[in-house]
Amino acid sequence: MTGSCALASASLAGAAGVAAQSDEETVSRESFAIRKGTAEETTVYVTTADADGPTAVVVGGLHGNEVAGYTAADRIADWTIDAGTLVTIPETNAVAIERGTRNDENGNNLNRQFPEGMKPQTELARALWNVVTEYDPDIFIDLHESTGVYAGDTSDGVGQAIFHSDGAAATDAAADAADYVTQAHIDDPDLAFQIGPFSSPSADPKGLFAHKAARDLGAESFLAETVSKPALGTRVQWHTTVVDRLFQGELLRNGASTSTQEADPDESAEESTDSDAGDSSTTSPNAQIQLLPTWSSESTLDPGQTVTLDASRSRDPDGEIVRYEWCVGDSDSFEETGETIEVTVDSNGEHPVELRVVDDDGSTGTDRITLSAGC
């Protein structure tokens, strides 16, 4: 019998640190409406972790016909984070979304209403900007779609691109996210993600939300565009993977861990012996498995389905990880290596997978999940 199943894991960290423990133990959530009582009314979602950290704002739906952007933002609003604050406004332009059009009923393009150094030009834009200025984000991400693919010239289309604010940190983060989503989810080289800098303040188009967040508030700011032709689920997956990757490092992670480590006693003894000759404060690395796509902490799997397991969230507090080793199935041998692997659930039942990471001191950390099918 072919059936679906849930992913069983004691320590799986999903999108932006979805933890095994309940939300109540890790974050607090609140929401409020802006433009309440009007056709433009929309909801702002705020998730605050117990641990201090940076603030991120994610918005979607500035254009009502760009469905993947506001669908992805809606899912991101439910993410659990390890540190800091996540503010999400999934449906910024409720009127345009209701109409299924780029602009509102008066022909206003919401993403042209945010002139830099000036007050936003419509009541809705001002209400949105008030939220952003109140939370003063360290990172700002705006999700969009395009009918054409970006190839260095925006006149041909801007899809499959991550545009970024000035500075090495934003540039590097955009490049990392573009490479990651391409390697994890894209087989067609023509759909590989590219990056590009924001246009200058004097160049058209002007009044973009992401530009204002970067230049008026100093946020590391990103405008992510997918091409609108593939299936909606694929486009949403691309968006959520990009956002999740941009949250890597210190942002909304802050060195926190939701993974459970289980060290081998013999390996622990060896680590203690090694540390006698050097730094006695050596810390074991933190292994962490992430199931791709990143937007779900659960997956319905069928026999024969292939999934990707990603170890890039693993961290070493006092050095770097030099090796990723995987034990797939009931064997005790770590035969596969690499930061990511693909696993095919080829039969009904439970399929354990264990990750072991090794750092530059020879210390190890492990994480385990169980993939189940036909249950």
TrEMBL record:
<dbReference type="InterPro" id="IPR022409">
    <property type="entry name" value="PKD/Chitinase_dom"/>
</dbReference>
<keyword id="KW-0479">Metal-binding</keyword>
<feature type="domain" description="PKD">
    <location>
        <begin position="290"/>
        <end position="373"/>
    </location>
</feature>
<dbReference type="InterPro" id="IPR013783">
    <property type="entry name" value="Ig-like_fold"/>
</dbReference>
<dbReference type="InterPro" id="IPR035986">
    <property type="entry name" value="PKD_dom_sf"/>
</dbReference>
<dbReference type="InterPro" id="IPR053138">
    <property type="entry name" value="N-alpha-Ac-DABA_deacetylase"/>
</dbReference>
<dbReference type="InterPro" id="IPR000601">
    <property type="entry name" value="PKD_dom"/>
</dbReference>
<feature type="region of interest" description="Disordered">
    <location>
        <begin position="253"/>
        <end position="315"/>
    </location>
</feature>
<dbReference type="GO" id="GO:0046872">
    <property type="term" value="F:metal ion binding"/>
</dbReference>
<dbReference type="GO" id="GO:0016788">
    <property type="term" value="F:hydrolase activity, acting on ester bonds"/>
</dbReference>
<keyword id="KW-0378">Hydrolase</keyword>
<feature type="compositionally biased region" description="Polar residues">
    <location>
        <begin position="285"/>
        <end position="311"/>
    </location>
</feature>
<feature type="compositionally biased region" description="Acidic residues">
    <location>
        <begin position="263"/>
        <end position="277"/>
    </location>
</feature>
<dbReference type="Pfam" id="PF18911">
    <property type="entry name" value="PKD_4"/>
</dbReference>
<dbReference type="InterPro" id="IPR055438">
    <property type="entry name" value="AstE_AspA_cat"/>
</dbReference>
<keyword id="KW-0862">Zinc</keyword>
<dbReference type="Pfam" id="PF24827">
    <property type="entry name" value="AstE_AspA_cat"/>
</dbReference>
<protein>
    <submittedName>
        <fullName>PKD domain-containing protein</fullName>
    </submittedName>
</protein>
